[in-house]
């Protein structure tokens, strides 16, 4: 394995692809990385040597596990993989620039929220014929599709859902997880009655994380997008935000909370519910002084408006996409192996607690014995869906526009109906850009 040295250039360069908007807010301040590399749209597709680009190679906790996968592949296939990495917060802007300039080849690790923006650049391989060999779960396969084509092989498939603290629920006399919004409200009031500074539900209330309102909007019946029409502003979205405001006013949720605050509150035993990705158990319990917390953390289906409704959750995870050009065939086989080989996925799970994307991988004893993961997959990921706004280059701006309007409601600067009307109009205008 060879690792490229990545530095930062002093100025952005336009590549004539119209994709800079895909990076969302902040891209105009990003710089393109330098570093050697062959043009991605030339070279021999049959070459055994290729690049593998991943933000995880820039992370101390993740890097050793991925380097081990790469080293094993290089030894078995007698090939050389050049590892490329950028920090997560800069990754999409850097990758967009590199891919647009023809400087990225081989396999590329993508957050599923970025897949559409990358696919729209026209430089990724359609992996439909390969994906059928993998034994991926249905929900995992969907995470790698855009516009009816399979552009990504799912590596790790999870979701963002609700985590409950069974210790606090027991103290409040709550014997079962609430399954409806009405039951959830009642549970929150019982928890508030415990006193001691308890925040019953550490829901997101800061703009940076207020996109967490989307699954609640869907719970109340708002599709958010119907074809090309933004539906935020309909009665269902207004009802959802009105309900959220009620929780805020009754101090069942707290002001100025983001994911980090929620984890801290939960870790201190001051919150009974909060929203997080499946990795939240490991992150939050590791930060907590309470060494029994991990055993008390339980995945909970998001309450529904009425019995029989489908619980809502946001799909979360990563895929491996393949760039057309040099080494694409070998990179495709590497991606298939990395995401489906049972020994590889089990070892990766043991190191990082990221659930595999295949039926066989999830059934492996090393994974199946982790009850939190298996319950999360069954209760939450099984019905999770991607955001309908991921397909648009302006996704980040849309999320921020809606979040600002929701926060305006929470602080009393706007009425739910007016705010959602404004949010819907702003989202529609952003899509038309």
From TrEMBL:
Coiled coil: none annotated. SUPFAM superfamilies: Periplasmic binding protein-like II (SSF53850). It holds the Pfam family SBP_bac_8. InterPro entries: Bact_solute-bd_prot1 (IPR050490), SBP (IPR006059), TAT_signal (IPR006311). It comes from the Bacteria. PANTHER family: ARABINOSE-BINDING PROTEIN-RELATED, DIACETYLCHITOBIOSE BINDING PROTEIN DASA. This is Extracellular solute-binding protein. It comes from [Kitasatospora] papulosa.
